[in-house]
Give the backbone structure.
Amino acid sequence: MTRRRDDSHDGRKFRAMKSDTWRFQGLMKTLLAILCLAGLTAFAADRPNIIVILSDDYGYGSVGCYGADGKLIQTPNLDRLAKEGRRFTDANTTSSVCSPTRYSVITGRYCWRTSEKHGVLGMFSPLHIETTRLNMASLLKKQGYSTAAIGKWHLGYGKADESPAWRTDYAAELSPGPLDIGFDYHFGVPANHGDLTGVYVENRFVYGLRNGKIPAHMKISGPDRDNPNFKATYTIEDTESHKNEPLDLDAPHRVNERVMPYLTEKSAEWIKAQKKDTPFFLYYTPVAVHNPVTPDKDIAGTSKAGPYGDWIHELDRSVGGILAALDEKGIADNTLIIFTADNGGVFHPEREMPQTVAYKAGLKVNGDLRGGKHTVWEGGFKVPFIARWPGKIPAGTVCDEMVSLADILATTAAIVGEKLPAAGEAAEDSYNILPALLGKEAPAARSDMIIHSSDGVYAVRKGSWKWIEGVPAEGIKRKKSDEFAPRLINLKDDPAETKDVSAENPEVVKELSTLLVRYRNGGYSREMPPFIEKMMPKVAELTKAEGSVILEESLVSLPEKPWTASKGAWKAEDGAVWGVQKGAKGTGANLRVPVGVTDGVLEYQIQFQGGRHSLRIEAGEGKQSFRVEISATQVGLTKNPAPGEPRDQILPLARKAVELETGVWYPVRITFKGNQTTVQVNETILSGTHELLGMEKKVLNFLVFGDKAGFKNVRLVK
């Protein structure tokens, strides 16, 4: 008994000593952080010029200093940056596709916290960055910097209204835009290289716009008539897809082979025009190496990796143009340059494309990483990241610390001595990696990080662990793919991401999946947010419409005549009827029923499990129809093309955003009254007017596109 008491006493002493040790270690870490911060804030007084070069679709293995075969491609200017600066081996984009990462670079926030849950912004999308949101440009402008955004923009122009036909009008003032979020100057390609605009934008208008909604007495600047960077026409052959006709804009058009040299020239001119006593921030976004692959004539054929290798040479030459401008002005020593990319390289070796030619020649576009652009694999996120700041960043060094491109904002704030707002207010997901840039001994800025694929699949990194949630965004059709299945990967043991080790490590799965949910629901990750349980979706309760019943079908089983099921798979289960589209390019599963009503109310319930729904209503004479479109993110009312009209001649009548969750039954009510139709989906209501809507409704077609959608309790009264 006595000995046990002594053992217990010794145990308490050991635990107390251990606790004191932990406290001491914690105190030392805090002191180290304070000392580092004190040293780093001294740099704030230097206020360096800052240049962020964000290349497009540039893979981890496509740079000499990252292991690219020098017999195939040469990147002397990027290699020079690495020799004179610091190269990161674990730098990651926030998305494996461009617009979301660009949003994160500028705002320090994951783009999936906005309405953009998957894919990229469209060419006609409004400005995606709120004009009141802290961002790189507004932060540095506040600090007295001159600011410019030159190159690919792809973050939208204008402010959308509730008009269903709203889209960016490139013949009008493009505002709000970059100048409304803190940039003093903007010269850019609106969306992608090879986009349908075929023009440049300068500040608030298309460059050289001759006819459009131009304010009275305002002259739009433009190029000289003999400028080799422009041509009179821009055709379908100039576009990336070669499928759709370009916009009809009365303005000088881009010459694809001259876009990179011209953007380099504009950037160099802007740098040279800056006052030496005023620091500047240049957000330079080359279109290379995005498709179409269009190296200039003087550089074509210089690579043994084919045209794609030449395109890489074009990008490297552009970086050289920026370095030369700094050297010529004598300001290189007080300029921080960060070179990186918005996502990994395109990798589809099964397709005929320039990247495949390069790959077959031996160029590992993304190094030894799995996958590439769009995917949830490392090839989609891990990108080159090189930083040079002479005298501050140690030359010729390598950093293996995990960083995110979202960290550039917080790091910039640290450089200029700007205190960030609370994590829940701005720069929600941005960490200060200045110690890592400067090669200072300090704890790693971040221990974890969220990445997000083009399909909306989340993954979280922590150390060598990577947890892939495997669930695509609402409305994305599930496919047979490892990306659409939960899996845990140990990147240290399995860098090729071939083995799921979830079963062997359930505690890691639990930790990372819980962390992902906490960051996602909490609204930020710069600090640990409080645990917020996701609220159950609110479902509206609608009383039955009164009137004479024309159609009533519970759909607990497949309905009999006059109903017909076609063009897809239909089955009854769980008290509802479910439709699934067959094939990737199918016309949708169709459940069809004839009716006869002019004024009335149609009610039913719908549940999404990855699909989207269109109710096509045949009305009037002939094959006229209109449709109600319902997805997890949008409700719309649209008149379809009349017989003899082209298929793209649709007329949007109403459109609103919604947020509907998978696995939840939502009420739908469609009211027909005269020439107006009112649609209610859950709590969202919209209305549209057209003479076709006032005609007799003859047939209802319940269409399902993509994955599953279910229906029950269909009821029509007049």
